[in-house]
Amino acid sequence: MNQLLLVSLRQKAVFIPQAAVKTAHQPLKGNTSLLVANLAKLGFGVSEPLLTALNGTTPAFQADLLEKLRQVMGVNKNWTPLVKGWDTPTGENLIDHIITFFANVFQESGTRLACGHIIPYGTFPLERYTGCPFCGTPFEFSKIDYHSQGSKLKVLELWRENEIETFFKDLLSSKTALDATQMDSLKILLSRFPIPAQVSVGMKETLIAVLDILIAQNSPEKAQSLFTSPTDILRYLWFKHTGFLQIIEPKTIIKRAKSNNRHIWLMEGKSTQAKSKAIADLKLKYSRKECLMVATWLNNLPLEAETICEMMHPKRGMWVRFIRAFRLAEYSKRAGFEKLKEVLDIFYNQVYEVWQGRVNYYRLRADEENTLSLLKQRPGLFARSLFANMLWFGKQSPIEAFSQVIDQVPARLVFTLYMYAEIYFEKEGARIVKPLGGVSKQVPANRMLSLYDEKGLEEMKTAIADLCKLAMQKRFAAIETKNRTIYIDPILYKMPLSIGDRSETVQGLPSALMGTRFEVEGDTVRLFMQWGSGLPAQHLDMDLSCQIAYDTRAEICSFSNLVATGCKHSGDIRSIPDKVGTAEYIEININELRKAGAKYVSFTCNAYSYGAITPNLVVGWMNSKFPMKISERTGVAYDPSCVQHQVRVTHSLTKGLVFGVLDVAKKEIIWLEIPFSGQVVQNLDAKNVETMLAKLEAKLSIGELLAIKAEAQQLQIMETSQADEVYSKEWAINSAAVTRLLVD
Does 223 score more than 90 pLDDT? Predict the structure, then answer.
């Protein structure tokens, strides 16, 4: 039950099964009042239907709910930083560290701490520290000192069996890729409910989670019907081997493991050992039962042998490894595996034609007719290469050819073209991309843009926008409706449509889409990072930092610069205590940043220790209309009621991560995720952040999509919720349900 509570909490609700309600329609009980008061301390309120339902539940259920929320908010973790009352700087500097270093080398006089280091008199003010200021080892741990400082409660709604089943179906049928939070929720639901009948799986990544459950239930024959191509099989096999839902090449994983284990101090790096371990971990070894299962899947694919081989071609190197590991050559000699034998024969002798190769052949020879004729055979790939083909052949022919097949293109691709045409056709513009398994990178504008004048490029943008908008209006218009009015919550015009974003972090609080803007109520924002919970005591150095961007320069606040313009850091912790973890904070003063002329503040975390960011590290930010206190006794500055957003890193190859950007002028925080390479915040390229912000700004909002729907179906947009169709902020929280608007 606790796990289902977690799923509902992510959707700003509490799941209460009918069986848990023992009594109904009675006066408010004392234990229910106490529960509501405790929830308020954590920053949560309850709706009237939820309050009524909670009043009928047992004290045991209420205790489980409170404990789950305390677990989500990390109340029982250690939140003690290195410095007590760290909003007042300690005055430490590089000279103090140098003097302390030589004092320990020559064993001079001073105060010897529990870690063994000697702190010379007149250097660090030890009464201000909870641990060793030289090595960053914490000694003191304490509980959260302050509660209920938050000025706005997150109101939770009631979920019954019907709501959680609907959410389950929405996740399965989502027409966009699920982020890490949604995928985690889907796995929980798949483990507790049977797969609903008459529900088609919307995305390949979602299919993998379904396949995993079926095979775990020892039903590989049911999985067979879900495989439509050899790529589906490869995707599942690679997921089981590495945990990644996308097919990340082995060389990429090895390269990332090697680079993540480099160190600024070369002698401390472990890149060679990490590379060897990654190679060893990627070796394939399977049982006879697994070999037979995969051989059967490939043999029974409902495709021609040459088509199967063509689909295997882009990942030929990986397929060669899997064919050997699964002994498919041996199984192809058995009776009943004739098709597998034919596939292997064609694949190894390479007597198949690759469609993309033919496209490239005609395209390089400027054969417009044959190139476009081939592209029309595969509308999805045509959509992905439309911009480049317009620059190659000119606007007219590609647009005319694409208009003939646009009705066969998935809606998410149509909207992607609609959103990003403005960015792509800018001569001086740049795009940000994230290769599979890599970090975010800037891609310069296509060099062929220089062949066109501004008028020609504007015509291309207009042609794409008009074509895509017309196509979606046709799809909406084809849907019969008796409704005449529609209400669109104004906040939906600020919520981006979930297309093309694959978040790698799990959100425990009510989840938000990448690009969502959070309003800052007060004048300060407090970043926090907690890591090491559940791990034994060890050196594990994670760093919380921020980069302040001005028009012509950048400034940082990190372990190497504890005080910057408008920012204060709580001190650098480099070792974690046993099991309870540790924390770092940064206080950001918006008024000071405005006076200094700052534009953006990027929130970052890095793994300074060799390796990637540790799993279960939690980062986020707090803000409140009223000043938030910092304990002078312990330095603890965490208050769950003030937390506006937080994310948890799960399985990652990431060395550095941007988890939010503060727009100083607008007093808004944009939730985003930008992985970057490097041990310190100085490795972050500020241009990547600005390019990502431009990309998010170009995204179509949910409100704009609903406006297109209203225009196509001739619905009158109302200013109040008294309408036939109502689209509110609460409806949009379930981004998987929003994808129903992507009509295919």
Answer: no
